[in-house]
Structures are given as structure tokens and as C-alpha cells.
Write a structure and sequence with these properties.
Largest sheet: 6 strands, mixed
Strand order of the largest sheet: 2-1-3-12-4-13
CATH topology of the largest domain: D-Maltodextrin-Binding Protein, domain 2
Radius of gyration: 24 Å
Number of domains: 2
CATH superfamily of the largest domain: Periplasmic binding protein-like II
Number of strands: 13
Order of helices and strands: HEHHEHEHEEEHEEEHEHEHEHHE
Strand content: 15-25%
Mean pLDDT: 89
Distance between the termini: 74 Å
CATH class of the largest domain: Alpha Beta
Length: 273
């Protein structure tokens, strides 16, 4: 009987130790020193690589996962697979939240990527011919942005008040009967051989081997777009004030990063801090 009692005690002690160890593992997650962030390959991932050494000094390891689309990095962040992501502007994030009933927020504005109008057929927008095909991003916020740029350049006219919610249905005047094709942003550079012009996001233009000097027109750095469409660090709402996020934002808003962006991208990417 005594032997059996001793065995029961041993089992109880073992269980207690196991529970303690599990509890210890759980509590250590709050002290996790790895920052997992999703990003578009260029310029976002490249910019993030510049802060790895600074974060290491603060005791953090930066783990960058690259994504080539605009949907998965937000899903991964919302699901808890990432601590943050860096690829989008706030209007896009707001639209994603609305469509997916999520609550992701902006932790900081980092840079602005001017949208550009590119062509393999023409050297000027004045060369556009009747019935030419125009490619624009198929996501709501970037499509509106593309249409606003085309309006600013005199290619089309939009309905009054369409603004940042404009779609191709809001085109009021299209004198050259241009045909508009809505294409996924990441596919726009590939559409150039089959279109007269394409309005391409800065990061995809860069990854597609294009530069600002190739564009027939670009968004101005002083435009409403520059203020509205600054690229952000997105996080879950509950993590905005976490030590991880604060360290990440501080590193990205450094003079080192500002100089890197200005030198590396020559106007294709513009720091906003």
C-alpha cells in the first residue's frame, strides 16, 4: 500500500513538473525575440533587410517572408502567422478589413511609391489611338488611383466626386474609346506587350525591371495620392504598442533607411518620415 502511495506521489510530481514546463513555454512567447514580417520582394523586403543589424542590436531577429500578391500577407497577419506586414497603403488595408471582417491597423507610414503609366508601344500619351487597350490594377483602391492619374494626364474624365472610390464605371469622357482591362497588380508588367499603356504600382514596376524614367507619367510627390497612399507597416490592433512593433518602426524610421531609399530608388520610392 505504501509503495503504491509513493508511486501515486511520483506521478503527481511528474505531472506538476510537466504542467510547470508547459506554462513556462507559454509565458516565454511574450518574450519572443523574433519579428515575423511579410513583404513584397521589392522594395519592401529590400528595405527591411537594411534594418536587420539595427534590430539585432536591440535583441531582435527579423524573419522576412516574401509574397508576390496583395492578399496572402494580410491573411497570414490576421491568422497570427506574422507579427506585421509591409506592402500596402491604408486605403487598401481598409478595403481588406471591410471585405474580410478583420481589424488590422497601420502602425506607421514608411514610404510612397508613385504610380506610373508605362508603354512598350508609345513614347507619349498623345500617341494613343482610338480603341487602344489600357490596363489598370483590378483592386478597388489602386484602380481608383490609376484612373485619377489618367484623368490628371487628360486621357479621360471621371464623374464629379468619384475620387478615391472611382471605378471604370465612373469614366464620363473617353474620347478615344479606350478599352479598359482590369488586371491583378502583380501581372501588369507582363501585360505591356498586349496593351497600349498600363498603370503600374511602383513595387511591381521595380520588380518588373522598370524605372521612373521609363514612365510616360507618374504621380506627383506633392499630390493627394502621396499623402493617401503611403505604404504602411500593418499589424493586428492588439499588437500596435508591443515592444516588437515599436522596435521595428523605430528601425525603419531611421536616417539610415531614409538615405538608402533616396539613393537606391531615385524617386521610384519616396520616404514619408
Amino acid at each position: 500500500m505504501k509503495k503504491r502511495f509513493k508511486n501515486i506521489i511520483k506521478v503527481g510530481v511528474a505531472l506538476t513538473l510537466a504542467i510547470s514546463l508547459l506554462a513556462g513555454c507559454g509565458s516565454s512567447s511574450s518574450d519572443d525575440k523574433t519579428i515575423k514580417i511579410g513583404a513584397s520582394p521589392s522594395p519592401h523586403a529590400d528595405i527591411l533587410k537594411q534594418v536587420k543589424s539595427e534590430l539585432k542590436k536591440e535583441g531582435y531577429s527579423l524573419e522576412i517572408s516574401e509574397y508576390t500578391d496583395y492578399v496572402q500577407p494580410n491573411k497570414a497577419l490576421n491568422d497570427g502567422d506574422l507579427d506585421a506586414n509591409f506592402f500596402q497603403h491604408k486605403p487598401y488595408l481598409d478595403n481588406f478589413n471591410k471585405e474580410n471582417k478583420s481589424d488590422l491597423i497601420s502602425a506607421a507610414k514608411i514610404h510612397f511609391e508613385p504610380l506610373g503609366i508605362y508603354s512598350e508601344k508609345y513614347k507619349s500619351l498623345d500617341s494613343l489611338k482610338d480603341g487602344d487597350i489600357v490596363a489598370v490594377p483590378n483592386d478597388a483602391t489602386n484602380e481608383a488611383r490609376a484612373l485619377l492619374l489618367l484623368e490628371e494626364e487628360g486621357v479621360i474624365k471621371l464623374k464629379k466626386g468619384a475620387g478615391i472610390n472611382a471605378t471604370i464605371l465612373d469614366i464620363k469622357e473617353n474620347k478615344k474609346n479606350l478599352e479598359f482591362k482590369e488586371i491583378a497588380a502583380e501581372q501588369l508588367t507582363r501585360s505591356l506587350p498586349d496593351t497600349a499603356i498600363a498603370v503600374i504600382n511602383g513595387n511591381y514596376a521595380i520588380s518588373g525591371g522598370l524605372s521612373m524614367s521609363d514612365a510616360l507619367a507618374i504621380e506627383k510627390n506633392t499630390s493627394v495620392a502621396a499623402k493617401t497612399y503611403a505604404n504602411i507597416i500593418a499589424v493586428r490592433k492588439e499588437d500596435k504598442d508591443s515592444a516588437k512593433v515599436k522596435a521595428l518602426v523605430k528601425a525603419l524610421k531611421s536616417e539610415k533607411v531614409k538615405k538608402y531609399i533616396e539613393k537606391e530608388y531615385n524617386g521610384s520610392v519616396v520616404p514619408v518620415f
